[in-house]
Each structure stands twice: as C-alpha cells, then as structure tokens.
Design brief:
The structure holds 2 protein chains of 2 kinds. By secondary structure, chain A is an all-beta fold. In chain A, 0% of the residues lie in helices and 46% in strands. Chain B is mostly beta strands. Chain B is built from no helices and 11 strands. The chains are: A mainly beta, B mainly beta.
Amino acid sequence: QSALTQPRSVSGSPGQSVTISCTGTSSDFGGYDYVSWYQQYPGKAPKLIIYDVNKRPSGVPDHFSGSKFGNTASLTISGLQAEDEADYYCSSYAGSYTYVFGTGTMVTVL
Amino acid sequence: EVQLVESGGGLVQPGGSLKLSCAASGFTFSGSAMHWVRQASGKGLEWVGRIRSKTNSYGTAYAASVKGRFTISRDDSKNTAYLQMNSLQTEDTAVYYCTSAYCGGDCSLGRYWGQGTLVTVPS
C-alpha cells in the first residue's frame, strides 16, 4: 500500500486560505469516507483536526474544513494564523483491513 | 481527561524483540479499535496495525512491512493495548504511537493519541 500523495509544502500569509490535497487511487480510499487529517508540531504527537472527511472534533476551530471528491481529499485552512504553522497528514481506511497515511505537508505562515 | 500512555520502548539489537504497552483512560477503551502508528525521525506517519473491539472479535490487521513479525493484542480489563515486535530490523527504528478509532471496527482512526515511545534498532 503506497502512501497518499500530499504536496511537500504550502504557504500563505496570515488571514489567507490554503488547501492541502491528499491524492490516491480509488482503492486507497476504499470507497469509504473514513478520511482523517492531523496537525503535528515538531516533537509532538499528531492531533486530530478532521475525521470522516469533514467532521471536526470538539474543540477544533472552525477555520479547518475537509472535503473529498473522487480520489482526492482536501484540507482547507481559512484565515491562516501563526499557530497553524505545522505539519499536516491525511489518513484513510483503504478497505481490506488496511489503512494508509499521506506523505505529509509542511504549512508555513509567511 | 483522556490519556493514552505508551511505554516499553528502548534500544534493541537487530533480530531482537520488544513489547510496547498503551494504557488508556478517560474514554470507553473496550468499545474502541486501537491502532499503532510509527514515525521514523524526520519522516511521515506509517500505519502499523490495529485490533478491533471485543464485539468485533478482536480482529487484527497489519501493514505488509510488519506482518508476521508484529502482533497486536489488548486486555480490556486493564484498558491496555500491546504491540509485540519480533525480528526487529534497523528500519523499525521509530517513535511508536498508539491511537484510538472512532468505533470498534474499521472507521476513522486517530481520535486520541499517546505521546509516543521511541524504539531504536541500531545498525
């Protein structure tokens, strides 16, 4: 199972919006909507920010949103803030009892 | 407060074994599938495997890279999940995280995360 493809890095100025893509094959998403997104600061454990494609856990600010169309899932960060500078990963249930993570994206706030 | 606390990491020689533990509290552990995810230094996240809940027959599944060498188990009476790692190789060197799922079977993972435990297999 190959990793889902994410851009290596994206950047934006404070207040701007950025979108991170997470692309795979149809089998990578297994026909399910079990896509999650995580935020990870250096040296820290990942933190869930989106699950089931577009649901936010309690306490996650609403400037994070998720979507999925075809073989690409996306995370949009609206109104970019300094504290959003981190690494972001997607994951998906790929069916056949396997899961796959994305390659990871570094978000830089200019 | 939800907590997942991993332990058991350390330095192990190639070919050796290690057993990691993940102690959970603050949520319904018995109803949650539990996953192990690893991250080599400077690299991305890699799914290692998962164990389903009792109502899902404690089913296990593994990544191809560890299948046959790693075994996941759980003890719901102790709210603890385990990762038994055998025939360890240098490429198994990573921080190992346990994480819970949103259900007892196969669904979105990553609801709660531990702080990670480092496993080092020197060359």
